[in-house]
Amino acid sequence: MRQRLYRDGELSKSVKGAPATLRRWLDNLERDWRRNEGAALVGPGEFDPNMAHTVTRVSPDELIVVTTGNYTLRFVNV
Question: Can you give the pTM of this predicted structure?
Answer without folding.
Answer: 0.89
